[in-house]
Amino acid sequence: MSHPQKQVVSEQTPLLASSSSSSPHDSQSPRRSSAASSLASAIRKDLSGSTSNSDGRTASGTADGRRYLVRLFKLLSHVENRILLAGFLITLSFSFTQVPLFYVFHLMECDVYYDTHPPYTGDGDRCSVNEIAAGTARQFSLLGMSTTVCGIMNLFFSGWLIKRIGPKATLIFQTSVPAVRVLMQIMGVITGGELGMFMIQATQIVTIFGGPAGYVLVVNVIIGEVVEASRRTGTFGKLQGCVMLGMSVGYIVGGRVGDAFGIQMPFRVAFVSFVSASFYVLSFLPYIDPARMSGSRPGAAKGGFLAPLRILKPQIARLTGGRLVNHYGVVFLCAGIFTGVVATGYAPLLIQMYATAAFDFTQADNGLMMSEFSFVRSLFLILAFPRIISWGRQVYSPRRQALQVAARKKKNATAAVAAARDSDGEQDETAGLSGWTTPKNNCATPSGYGTTDTIDDSSALIMPTHPEEVEVMPANAVEVEVPPITETAEDISHDEGVVDLSFDLVFLRWSLVVDGALTTLAAFATQKWHIYLAAMLIPLGSGSAPAAKGVITDMCTPSQRADALNAVTLVENMANLTTQGIFGYVFAALATRGVAHMTFFCNAAIAVLAMLVLLFSKFPPLGSELVDEADVEAEAEV
Q: Where do Polar residues bias regions lie (predicted)?
């Protein structure tokens, strides 16, 4: 099992033949291309059967529409874009009901309040009562806590299900179950009152089997399997950008639909959206056999619910000399991710609370600000983040030459081992029981067959000086001619394709510092528009989450990739739960002293601490290879 950092651009993953073609997994699925083929035929038929229109303006509009359809079809023909669109559609479905749920609890609390109080006789909104506001906040807080707890359980369930039925079937399951949950919520909205609130709260149990945490994990796993290694980090960023864009659109559309058509309509739209997303996943996403996922071995244990927690243990690396050592790169990486999310995860809610307290922001103002925040962040992650990663890898590549040498040595060693094995097979047929082969020019032969170790120049020059130092071969020994290794055009392209992933880790460290520094800008706001400006600038420090996913997939063995992504998502969720408790208390304590803006500086300080923790996270040494615990135990038994 080779070192995960030695990635080669020219060698595509088994699931993606080229950057311009769809995944070979598409051909493995009998139902995958039906919808895409029908869309292609319809477009070709429309283009071939089109006739000139007497009205020039109408003809021009029709031609433009056809061009847009063709362009859309070309975009969707790439498996990477289909995955990103799936992330957007599913997030959009989840976001439709987020804003309406708050008003549902508000109206139900209002009904419950007047069941035990005299009717309202004053002017204005009858629900504008402190007791009703407190009850609404209590119900919504309980909903948020249950969503977080059930979401963490959903992560374990989704990771377990991926290994059993595959990512595609798991994603369909993750979008179908929420559709059932929305139907149950509609029943709660119709029932109303205290019973209706209880029914809506009880639907959170369904989130364990299908929720907003699990589907993000599944889509990340699909990206890890389908997208080539050099594009993986950038694609993780694009996915998060699509998720943020779906949230931004869903919040606005859900609120508008509720105002225009009644409080039940957003839930009905969400149900239809979940069903549509399920059919989209079934029709357009590639099928990935769980038995053929990266690193899967026949007969290997699939792991249980708690398998992601094993990623948080120190890894085992085999050095070039064969010695096994513990590697703590992933341990410090997860610790840094946790600290970073604690620092930056509370920023969206913090800026809302500060704007409300200091500048009298209304709910509409906060909604507009959060929509701006999500939209700018999505644009940054989709458009800028992949280009920054690509540019940074070209500029900052201190290990590129060493990686090229290591990759070349490994390729040569593999070729020599294959030649030796072929020679062993021929000798077995002619040399009786010994079957011993001795390559000519033995000093150039890699030592420890199957490893990356090679005999250095000093040992190659040692000549025997005593008779006992000369190795005596059996009488039936055969000399095997090992052809000299020459540099070919394929070798040169292979070296040029080696990617140094050091910049990904550097970006992860400093993006947290930039994020914390931009967050402190809100502390200097003196006018209302300053808050909107800060909300536009803070997303420019995003990218730590996708960078962390890209780094951890390269720090782990291929067989641990799904569990590694699960572990990162789990750490992020636990950090979000922690930051809500910590900074909620810090903001309240500082606000009572009239210095609520100091909370932003506390955020920045913790972000710097996260960067310092990440300084201890490093890739395994060059020439080493990560080893699974099962392999170590098997070697120990032998």
A: 1-17, 48-60, 435-450
pLDDT tens track for 252-308: 888 888 888 888 999 999 999 999 999 999 999 999 888 776 555 544 445 566 777
CA distance 574 to 149: 9
Q: Which residue stretches of 77-211 are H helix?
A: 79-95, 98-115, 130-165, 167-191, 193-202
Residue 604 structure tokens: 């920045």
Q: Under DSSP, is residue 8 helix (H, G, I), strand (E, B) or coil?
A: strand
Residue 610 lies in domain = 310-399+500-638
Quick one: which of 455, 416, 462, 443 has its CA closest to 321? 455
Q: In what order do the strands lie in the sheet with 625-627?
A: 324-327, 315-318, 625-627
Same structural domain, 209 and 84? yes
Q: DSSP letters along 300-346, please? A: -----TTGGGGGGSPEEEE-TTS-EEEE-HHHHHHHHHHHHHHHHTT
Q: Is residue 431 part of a domain?
A: no
Q: Provide the CB-side half-sphere exposure for 265 (13 A, CA).
A: 10
Does 229 share its domain with 111? Answer: yes
Torsion-angle region of 369 (φ positive above 0: left; ψ -120 to 50: alpha; else: beta):
alpha
Q: Is 342 left (phi over 0), alpha (psi -120 to 50) or beta?
A: alpha
Separation CA 637–CA 631 (nearest Å): 10
Strand bridging mode 437-439 / 478-480: parallel
pLDDT digits 0-9 by tens, 386-415: 999 988 888 877 655 565 566 556 556 655
In a domain, 476, yes or no: no
Amino acid identity for residue 586 in this structure: V
Select from 528, 249, 257, 254 the least CA-distant residue to 372: 249
Give the CATH number of the domain where residue 265 resides: 1.20.1250.20
pLDDT for res 437: 34
Per-residue CA distances from 323 to 315, 320, 409, 446, 621 (Å) = 14, 7, 19, 17, 12
Which helix (H) or strand (E) element contains residue 575? Answer: helix 561-592
373 and 246 within one domain = no
Could you give the CA distance from residue 491 to residue 433 in angstroms, rounded to a whole number?
38
- pLDDT value for 402: 60
- 82 lies in the same domain as 228: yes
* 8-state DSSP, 261: H
Q: Which of 229, 263, 296 is the last residue of a domain?
A: 296
The owner of tokens 């000086």 is 465
Q: Residue 42: inside a domain, yes or no?
A: no
Cβ neighbours, 10 Å, residue 220: 28
Q: Which residues pair with 438 in a beta bridge?
A: 479
Contacts with 558 (C-beta within 8 Å, 6 or more apart), sequence order: 1, 4, 294, 295
Is 469 contained in some domain? no
550-559 pLDDT per residue, tens? 888 888 877 7
Q: Where are the beta strands (DSSP E) in 206-319?
A: 315-318
Question: Cα–chain-centroid distance for residue 333?
Answer: 15
Number of domains present in the structure of the chain: 2
**Is-contact 386 238, C-beta < 8 A?**
yes
- Between 41-50, 138-147, 172-181, 493-502, the lowest mean confidence (pLDDT) is in 41-50
Pair (314, 269) in one structural domain: no
Please measure the distance between the N-terminal and C-terminal CA atoms of the chain and give it in whole angstroms. Answer: 18
- Residue tagged 């979008």 (tokens): 175
